[in-house]
């Protein structure tokens, strides 16, 4: 699924603005750097863009240095993108010098706290920003953030498969994995999957058709699969890194004139396994059509791995093979994660999308790839024990 699928499409709904609420620790203050302005203002996501405009302008005036005294007529706002996890707005100002400057305002979609840990995201953003990743954090409010504007184009799935760009993504991902985020370094992947499983297995659907499809799902089977996959992956002793966890084409941007690649949107970021982050990225080669035949073959994966490992040392055959096995084992975990995510979205998302269908698609792909991926890992571990 692309960013359009994992975002909240609010272009027609906009937001009802400016409701003042008591500041909540998780939404505003927790993890926020001391020098970034915070506000208890909330933007109610239900009214058209024109009605939300005064409140968005007010948030930007309080976040961007030098904008507080500007007249509201200096501002223009346009929708950049949206899906179920956020709505992105571009806010531009024509200053007295005649120069135009822009920032982005990201509004969280409804019920996204069920699948996104905002506290974890806010803790990570300043450190990732300091390392040169993503947009600079300018302000935080109750249900969103103000960030600098990135002048670049969003990649397509076909771009990601292009060898030159794949090499750059690999190098940048290696650098991303070196960022140290304070706090616990315990991997969160399986914790998150088990949380999703618990929520997904307790859903109630009023719609008869949805309920019938939902009732065909065996959560006992899924739980057994998750436990077996976790036990197998634990034997691989994959390195733990701070992972992006959602490196689809919509979260990759490229400034062609400067040759600068950007990673954006760290909503799902956490300490996790190196191979999971790479495998999740490879699964996104499937693109918006979910064509998993686009998953990279071994040669394409090795091209990515060599560029990923390049800063550390020359890529030795055993290192490449170990990363190959690690990645293709966690390939299964990625399908399970987003399948369970989709079930929760099927219940809470306001967007008209067949999330139940997406669950069956991802879980079906898990079952299709399970035997070959398990066999690959088991053979590799056997060789290690005997070698």
From TrEMBL:
<dbReference type="Pfam" id="PF01633">
    <property type="entry name" value="Choline_kinase"/>
</dbReference>
<dbReference type="GO" id="GO:0005737">
    <property type="term" value="C:cytoplasm"/>
</dbReference>
<dbReference type="InterPro" id="IPR011009">
    <property type="entry name" value="Kinase-like_dom_sf"/>
</dbReference>
<feature type="compositionally biased region" description="Gly residues">
    <location>
        <begin position="1"/>
        <end position="15"/>
    </location>
</feature>
<dbReference type="GO" id="GO:0004305">
    <property type="term" value="F:ethanolamine kinase activity"/>
</dbReference>
<comment type="similarity">
    <text>Belongs to the choline/ethanolamine kinase family.</text>
</comment>
<comment type="pathway">
    <text>Phospholipid metabolism; phosphatidylethanolamine biosynthesis; phosphatidylethanolamine from ethanolamine: step 1/3.</text>
</comment>
<feature type="region of interest" description="Disordered">
    <location>
        <begin position="1"/>
        <end position="33"/>
    </location>
</feature>
<dbReference type="GO" id="GO:0006646">
    <property type="term" value="P:phosphatidylethanolamine biosynthetic process"/>
</dbReference>
<feature type="compositionally biased region" description="Low complexity">
    <location>
        <begin position="23"/>
        <end position="33"/>
    </location>
</feature>
<protein>
    <recommendedName>
        <fullName>ethanolamine kinase</fullName>
        <ecNumber>2.7.1.82</ecNumber>
    </recommendedName>
</protein>
